Amino acid sequence: MGQDTDRDWNALAEIDPYWAVLTHDEFRGAVATDADRLEAFLESGREHVERIWKAIESALGGPFSPQRALDFGCGVGRVTIPLAARCGSVLGLDVADPMLAKARELCERLQVGNVRFVKSDDRLSQVNGTFDLVHSYIVFQHIPPARGLHLLRRLTGLVSEDGVGVLHVLYYNPDMAALPVRLIKKAWRSAKRPFRRIPQMHMNAYPLNDVFRIIQEAGGRQVHVLPTDHGGCLGAILCFTAGRRAPT
Predict the structure, then answer these.
(1) Which of 35, 56, 91, 236 has the fewest beta carbons under 10 Å from its own?
(2) Which residues have C-beta within 8 Å of that of residue 12, sequence separation ≥ 6?
(3) Is 2-242 in CATH node 3.40.50.150?
(4) What's this model's pTM, rounded to 2 decimal places?
(5) Per residue in 29-58, pLDDT tens?
């Protein structure tokens, strides 16, 4: 997210964390103290995990029961918590301390004990070993591609042999299609920044040829694509099984 977008994400985490994770109006404000809205928020995470599990088990041709899982960009734990119900343990990573604090509180409240949360950085320096499942959803769109591609390479390298990666990227943002539009929007965001209470949420598109190359070089095979559409911003959840690394 560059230092700018790290700062923005921390600010969003302080101002409206549940909405920052899932930008629907129903999740604005004090979601954690509203049982119905909190349940709807958590159910959206369970639905996402059910969707990717069907794709993974279809690719594997059988049940998937990972022991170690990693959730990159975990936010308040919307997906981390349902992952914990299916995995031996889950490590949640996020750049925002307020998000991590709220995720820990939510897990304690729900008595989810097989999750650990740590702060993320570009080197993923607090991550050790490999994982049977490496997951990230609606995260990389908020990270500039120059930085995000490096992180994707780091994450694919953490997938164990015969493990599974589930990584989501946008590949098309209609508002950013032409260079003049990009320059105008960048200037407009810069002009508005001093007056904004809520930081701009970026929607970055990635070159899929680079993303697929990273996955293949990490030993990725049997890539299953789940299309996504977030308000006209088109993307793909890439579910892949990992084999031996490609020779360098």
Answers:
(1) 35
(2) 20, 96, 198, 199, 201
(3) yes
(4) 0.88
(5) 888 888 999 999 999 999 999 999 999 999
